[in-house]
Amino acid sequence: MGEVIGSLEVQIDSVASQFLEESKTKEVLVISHFDTDGISSAAIMGKTLKKLDIIFSLKIVKSLKPELIANLPENKIILFLDLASGSLSHIQNSNLKKVFIIDHHEIDTIVPSNVRIVNPQLNGKEKISSSGLVYLFCKKLSPEIKNFAKLAILGMVGDQMEKEIDKLNHEILDHGEIKKKRGLLIYPATRPLNRTLEYASHPYIPGVTGDQKGVIELLREAGLAPKTGKYKSVLELDSEEMERLVTGIMLRNPKARYSEIIGDVFLIKMYNKLEDARELSAMVNACSRFGESNTALQLLMEVPKAKKKAESIYIKHKQNLISGLDFVSKAEKIKGRGYIIINTKDNVKDTIVGTIASILSYSPEYTEGTIITTMAYYEDKIKVSSRSVGKNGRNVREILSNIINQVGGEVGGHEFAAGCILKQDKEEEFIQLLKKNLEIEMIKV
């Protein structure tokens, strides 16, 4: 079994010094996940390795398939970021000699002897994003990287972990060019309110999200008129205006708790301008979902030409999202006690069904503990995303794992937000097993 060490700090120290030693003589291949946390991790690591003159190449992947692991070069150090904790058995069966993993996902088996790993699941289960771990790891490699802390905060926001700021994350917050402000948690907090509200998804505002007329109506009710043809941004509202807007939102979505829609807004400096971390995160995710992970990486590396390209992809993504939500609101649904399944087939892009499931989990339509599952076709496969409303109740990753063990495919994610991929010819069998598992689980509860 690979070495498992006491506290997270000790673990980071030990693995970082081993990595530094090994990378003196060997080239490094960095493989990172394609979401905001993974791409933020890759950007921090890439900048650090460049600074240290370590020879490396970088690959961003949507998922870690067994065949990808089997074809990795044996003569390089393989460094996985924000993934691989669930692929340890495949790594063990490979011929890889030197494998390093920095990840925060669940570990599926004992750690093989060819693996050095940093993962809070091995000790205190501290809540920290992979980009946070990568930042702390890279600070051991090169203490002069404090200006990369903003990317760790971005990854944390991307993984919706901003409420989990503990001792370690606080250290990261203190290092970066990061401003924290109390405010309404619709984003971007830096853009005019009418644009922000139209695409608001956390919280989802019935009659407002995706509806320009509804947006103007809400702003009129809240007594917010444009000045010289332009609405204020969230950050420009005074406390009275903020209260009126919050009241209007809560009347439309009574399920949106005050404590959930008011919170910390993180502003980070990118391209010499303060940007809302949640919007940057959404932009990174949009690029990845359009198969443009390199654009996302360049955006975070602050390559000038990447910004325009990322912005145009983001606009397209938001339009897809609004039309996807519109389709789902009218689509036929499979409903049972405590669950709902929405099979969009090829009517919604597979890259946004997870986002749609997340948005629906904030909708007032569903009670706490309900499991929302969305499905969409891509190629000859089906992408499935499940979310538990209110992050409460049953372990959706476990439920999906049980089914995938029977029908074949891949599973990933967390306890209350998970997904899987399976072959299209298993569609009917999957739905029947999902219904059966959800109903059994309901009886258990």
In short, what is this structure?
With 445 residues, the protein is α/β, with parallel strands linked by helices. Helix content is 43%, strand content 18%. It has three domains: 166 residues, inorganic pyrophosphatase (n-terminal core) (Alpha-Beta Complex); 146 residues, no CATH class; 114 residues, Diaminopimelate Epimerase, Chain A, domain 1.
Q: Could you explain the architecture of this structure?
A:
The protein is of the alpha/beta class. The chain folds into 3 domains: 166 residues, inorganic pyrophosphatase (n-terminal core) (Alpha-Beta Complex), CATH 3.90.1640; 146 residues, no CATH class; 114 residues, Diaminopimelate Epimerase, Chain A, domain 1. The protein has 17 helices and 14 strands. Strand 7 and strand 8 form a beta hairpin. Helix 2 packs antiparallel against helix 6, helix 5 packs antiparallel against helix 6 and helix 16 runs antiparallel to helix 17. It is globular, with a radius of gyration of 22 Å.
